[in-house]
Specification:
The chain is an alpha/beta fold and about 140 residues long. The protein has one domain: Rossmann fold (3-Layer(aba) Sandwich), CATH 3.40.50. Strands 2-1-3-4-5 form a five-stranded parallel sheet, sandwiched between helices. β1, α1 and β2 form a beta-alpha-beta unit. α2 packs parallel to α3.
Length: about 140
């Protein structure tokens, strides 16, 4: 699964950096954006082509809700799967019902859970691609 790109959209620089470090250790190419407006700009100008977007909901500027609405209205971006990564207090089911993201992972983030979700989403876009950890069954990791 090496070289799959992930865009992390989160206003907390520490969270973006920790997630980026973890995902880069797993072989992903990672880009970050501090809010929805910056993420949309990068996606629309072609500087990033993610296989998955990790999206926080509560951000200044343009929050995750507005980002997702804009993304779904843009035919060039609507197909990019989104994983909501938030401590918003909303249930995963209510978020999926309203915005249809690929998945919901609550903060604080458990490393193994997030990696499993990302792998599942990437696999659904490119069937048959498994990384070495999935082939050996060694997908459990420490918390992030």
């Amino acid at each position: 699964m090496a070289s799959e790109a992930i865009l992390i959209v989160d206003d907390d620089n520490d969270v973006r950096c920790a997630l980026a470090e973890m995902l880069e250790e797993e072989g992903f190419a990672v880009e970050g954006a501090p809010n929805g407006r910056a993420a949309l700009a990068r996606l629309r100008n072609g500087t990033v082509h993610p296989a998955v977007i990790l999206l926080d909901l509560m951000m200044p500027g343009m929050d995750g809700w507005d980002f997702r609405s804009e993304q779904m209205r843009d035919p060039n971006l609507a197909a990019v799967p989104v994983v909501i990564v938030s401590a918003s207090g909303f249930s995963g089911e209510s978020i999926r019902t309203q915005f249809g993201p690929a998945a919901y992972v609550a903060k604080p983030i458990e490393r193994a859970e997030l990696l499993d979700v990302i792998r599942r989403v990437v696999r659904s876009r490119a069937p048959g691609q498994l990384d070495a950890a999935e082939r050996t069954g060694d997908a459990k990791r420490d918390r992030t």
